[in-house]
Amino acid sequence: MYTSGHLFSGGWGDGRGFMNAGYAPRFGANHNPAAVATARANVPGLYVREAAIQTIDMRTLPYATAWSARRSAGKPPLQAATPRPASRKSSMSARARWPSRAGGSRPG
């Protein structure tokens, strides 16, 4: 069974999408007390932590096969970690995937 963890969980819309796709939720976190209460109401029994993401020791989070960290609708994702099929992994080097900014050179 696939499991999911959600940083910036909000009212659990993102988590609901994962649940609809067959993932079992393991964890949620948000700094907003109203968002935490909404997530808890939407998924009874879910472990939701009220905390700023900078204060969470990531080593203490439960294991999940997929993690979502979207700030809110309309904003770019900070991180979205989901399992990728081995055949879809890029053979490009990190340097090729992440070109330097403004034409400058990258250290290294």
Automatic annotation (TrEMBL):
Taxonomic lineage: Bacteria, Bacillati, Actinomycetota, Actinomycetes, Kitasatosporales
UniProt region (Disordered), positions on chain: 69-108
Alphabetized Gene3D superfamilies for the sequence: Vaccinia Virus protein VP39
The organism's place on the tree of life at top rank: Bacteria
UniProt name for this protein: Uncharacterized protein
InterPro entries attached to this UniProt entry: SAM-dependent_MTases_sf
Comp. bias regions, Low complexity: 84-97
